[in-house]
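for the writeup, i need someone to sanity check this before i put it in the appendix. the sequnce is what the collaborator sent (i think, or maybe the updated version? ugh). structure was predicted straight from it, no edits. if anything looks off just tell me and ill rerun, i have time this weekend
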Amino acid sequence: MVLTGILLVIVTFIAIIKGYETRLVLFVSGIIMCFIGGNTIAGSDAFIKEFTNAGLVPTICTVLGFSYVMDYTGCSKHMVTVITNVLSKLKFILIFGSVLVTFFVNIALPSAAGCAAAVGTLLIPALISAGVNPKMAAAAVFLGTWGSVMSPGLMFNPQIAQMAGTDVMTVIGSFSVQVLSAAVIAAIILTITAIVKKENTGFVSTEKQASLSTDTFKINYLHAILPVIPLVMLITGSKQIGLTPYVSVPTAMLIGTAIGFIVVRPNLKEATKRFFRGTGDGMCDIVGIIAAAACFTAGMKTIGLTDSLIDVMKNSQHIAQFASAFGPFIIGVISGTGNAAALAFNGAVTPHAADFGYNIISLGSMAQIGAGLGRTMSPVAGSAILIAKIANVNPLELSKRTALPTIIATLVVMFTLL
């Protein structure tokens, strides 16, 4: 049965890489493994359980709802425009700064594609007009789109927090120094690459590329700070800082949404619809894949694959270390999303982290960070395709430039976190 399970897992990830619907593939694979293992109901029970998971569903849905409201009200655009205008005046750190700006925006706007659209349409033209080669300009923005690993709304962080019996901000705080250090190192490596390739200056933009300029956009600075208000509330109210009263992620998102309604005064009917459309998409796109992955990991457990995998990792701590980092990383590179691999790893292996010398938070966080970095090297990632289109370049050119920074960043986090 273990050999059959291994074959099914391989077929599952091949199907995901080939572009088949991830949720369907994970669910069907999980049910088949449960059937072979003699407990078909285990997969469906795990699937259903995630849709009523009090630790995951409210967090993910309210973050998406808030993000949709910020997009509808234009607050996201105001925020990114302010950052872009400041950065364009600091030409000596343009590429380095662009990576980190995108990284931090991606924390507030945890969707990689959404962040790519918000930042890319403003920052890429600014970089090109400053003389940066379009390929490098696009790569700089793309390299920052793994900042979501530090977002309280990213699906993995609430999942890991629940497994560890703690709050989301404690999970994020446990790896924030390592991730921020890796982000800085990755940005430095890309900057050096740009200098070596002579892509950091001297490019003359064409009329088409310059046409994306947003110089005429009128900034409202009050609106610009609204997208980060919930994040500030969560950070200052966290156990590590404690400057303000503690609030949960859903509460922070609801407060941020209410402040947005009061300050911006949009069409309340339409803005409310956008909020609940975001919560619905959160349930569909994120909770749905978590539920399907839970079915898949239940199948791995039932067929005996999980126990065999854990036994192998018990014999070598280094196997667990590299599997957690580069398993999801490689799937992310090939498929453009490492979510399925990271969810499967966290569901099957992470709860047993202590058996091979790690804690749940560290091992689970490494898996999702590896997945995020792998996606940031993938030419088929949705954010890569979108950014490449904005810069009018081939997505593969982005991957060529982000490959070394993402690999080094993964190693940095792996050796400092685990």
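The CA atoms of residues 2 and 119 lie 46 Å apart. The radius of gyration is 21 Å.
thx in advance!!
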